[in-house]
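hey so u asked for the seq, here:
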Amino acid sequence: MAASAPMPHGTGFPAEGRCGYYVEKKKRFCRMVVAAGKRFCGEHAGAAEEENARKRILCPLDPKHTVYEDQLAKHLKKCNSREKPKPDFFIQDINAGLKDETEIPEKLVPISFLSEEQMENLIKKLRKASEALHDALNDPKNGDSATKHLKQQASILGNIEKLKLLGPRRCFVEFGAGKGKLSHWVDIALKDAEKVHFILVEKVTTRFKVDGKHRKKNSVFERLQIDIQHLCLNKIPLLSKEKLPVVGIGKHLCGVATDLALRCLVETYAASCEERNEEPLAKRVKNDKTEKEINTLAKEGNEKNIPEKWTPVAGIVIALCCHHRCDWRHYVGKEYFRALGLGAVEFHYFQRMSSWATCGMQKTSLEASNISTKRKDKQNDGSEEHDDGGYRITDDSTESLPGFLNVEEKKKIGHLCKLLIDQGRINYLQQKGFNPALQYYTDPLVSLENVLLTALPNHSSSPETTA
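ran it, structure tokens below
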């Protein structure tokens, strides 16, 4: 093995048909399949004398892999990392907020670098802004409802049904779809409902997707690999053709992705549909139905949870997550923050401090061992949770805790930060003609990220609990 890395004593031999290059970093042989009559895979062939000293270089499109220098031009035409033609529904930054460079200082120091006086001032601002804030999550009535919901429904799916969004003639758009499990559950719950479409939005390539397993004649699944920031729903052929009411859903939609999804639904989609004066459902049906048939259809529609009035966005159900990953530019609640006398600097620190709500606990060695076991179990079952029972460690959660705050106080402040950020989203949806609500949808022992944001258009039935 003259051309490979030195092989330590006792490592054995490469598997049959596999590359003979020993990867020192991984302490094993490369496992790539080799061509007939070759000892090394294409990645490591450059190290072999038998390859006539052909030079391999880093791919300029993706330095994670190499290519023969004399085949670079050919490789660039077929490289998976090459820029591909953009689909019609890609519009650069269509859901991004306005970028105001003057609001954000060039450099914001980490929380651990702030003096005790600076921290106290930030916390005073937070508490003052939260004084008049109605915490729907701690409302006694909502507590009863949440407890009841946990016992009887115990899932996002249950909330979708409770809001009367689980019915035929709809298009469910799952943001941050991952493997598509949420849409999978919705499809199963709908059974054989007519004209149900699913659009799964995910910006990265995902393995072990479940949406490809659906073959029901009444359901259509379409997966879009695109960042929500650039997604224009109006340009998707499925939606422009069918004109079905959209239900936006998401399970643990990380920080900024929630704001992008909300703007995608209520600004770039709902607003533009209204500008085009789309016909209500009843009017479109009237073209080829008698009045008696329309009345019958309306009656059946009420029984089947079909909205009486056609609306571009019939509802929104999003499980919130990772407030520490929010971004001021994309945040939809800027107007709400400014009305409270807060701006980009306060938002930056509040979103960093929000991680204290789920990462501020001290753990014993026994708990740490249990957490490690849970992590392994989740890796084995392919779980898509963004947190592992609230013990995820973020960059700011490891910073030194100010001396005047104990763990419980830190946790409460983190909760206030999350609530304030979410209240900005509630305010935004209210301004856009929706009736939004916040509620718990699962037990904190299952996940500390257990808050659900729901919204219905004002002309629809209101949720039981409002924020």
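Residues 407-431 form the longest helix (25 residues). The chain has a mean pLDDT of 76.
lmk if thats what u needed
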